[in-house]
Amino acid sequence: MTEPQTSNAYDSLPVPPVLPKHIAIIMDGNNRYAKAHGMAKGQGHVAGKESLDPLVEYCVAVGIEVLTVFAFSSENWQRPADEVALLMRLLSATISEQLPRMKKYNIRLRFIGDRSQLSSELQQQMADAEAETADHKAMTLVIAISYGGQWDIANAAQQLAKKIEQGEMTAEQLTVDALGGQVQLADVADVDMLIRTGGEYRISNFLLWQSAYAELFFTPTLWPDFAAKELNEMMFEFSRRQRRFGKTSEQIESEM
Predict the structure, then answer these.
(1) Domain extent at residue 38
(2) Catalytic residue among 28, 152, 190, 192
(3) Per-residue b/e over 49-82, b at no fewer than 16 CB within 10 Å?
(4) Residue 174 lies in a domain
(5) 200 in a known ligand binding site
(6) Which mean pLDDT values do the consecutive 10-residue runs of the chain (256 residues) have?
(7) Is 232 annotated as catalytic?
(8) How many domains does the chain divide into?
(9) Which of 76, 155, 205, 232 is catalytic?
């Protein structure tokens, strides 16, 4: 007996003619969502956590290779201690809840950021989740925790500096390509679309190196309200943009 087919909210959405390989999202607006809905302090983050699953399903269904979400920044450590503690609990819960979904949809789960500031328990949970999903091929879901773009670039420079100290390379070999090979996510495509929800117009130290040529999208929609339909509309807009990477329009058109 076959299982009944379930209908998803994104099933009727048209597929954009050009798909980005890598989408990155700054998930902003949880606290404002909570205030607007009269929710208790911190509950906006709980609501925001629930928004991720349908977007992950949509991305894997349409054929996105990598989805990276900004869960907790280097600067977020400055927030009130009780909010940080709640965010850490939610991150742990998210990992536990995502694992069965990663296996169901054949998604690889990865984490980027400075893990040294995280608890040993959370670090172990992250490592275990990465190991359990390492062979999954449908899509990669990257969760940025204790991450900052400036830290990422400095950390990459430190790795190369150590190689220079040890005589494994010269200072002249410290090129753009060499540095790019040491940043987080060096083994996947650079970010094509960088989205920020919540109405702010800044990228807040997120994937600075990897987003050098990303198309930027900003929406006033608070993260808990952000859904596949709006992402689909953004992807159609992405399809209409001409990405020149420093070349002229004439050069791009002649290559098509």
Answers:
(1) 22-148+190-233
(2) 28
(3) bebbebbbbbbbbbebbbbbbbbbbbebeeeeee
(4) no
(5) no
(6) 51 92 96 92 85 94 97 91 90 89 95 95 96 97 96 97 96 96 97 98 97 98 97 97 66 60
(7) no
(8) 1
(9) 76
